[in-house]
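Look over this record before class:
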Amino acid sequence: MGVHESQSRLWENQVARSRAFWRFFEPKWRAAFSEQTAALSSEALYREINAVRPTLIRVDSDEVTYNLHILLRFDLERRLFSGELAVADLPAAWSELSQSLLGRAPSCHREGVLQDVHWSGGAFGYFPSYTLGNMMAAQLWYRAQAALPGLESDFESGNFARLLGWLRKEVHGRGRRYTLPQLVERVTGAPLSPAPLLRYLSERYLPLAS
């Protein structure tokens, strides 16, 4: 599932949060919301799209803090299955870890332990696939940029065909012949690593901190 998640995360984050994408999409967005966006500059729009604001809700979180939400859930899952944590104590443990990782604690279960459908549906162990997907997406992104010079120019003109074609050839067309680590190494020439993700986050977000 990490491979599956890498594809959605790559398009959602590396592509759709980029300056190049918004140079293409901004006129369309402003046409749809002309009154609401009249006073918003292009730079302010880009910064808002990539704003880092810790939130209690995983699906509303920014790229920088998203994986902290996954760490929270994975830690609690491990403690549940080891017997260290009782189900009845899960809400309190969630609140404590949320405060520690995100600097905020939920005011109700809707903001905390009951916000996801995964556990109620029996999908224990799924959450790490999001972080694996983020790692793989970043590693694929840098490989795609090396293989396809001029991707940003493509995006600025609304052309996403080259990237999609590359992904179809290198990732989608391989099906389930390889495990995630095997696939990453075959496509990128390097083992799966958090380094590309950390590099990507640094390159995108550190300039916005000034």
The two ends are 36 Å apart (CA to CA). The chain has two domains: 2-53+129-209, 58-127.
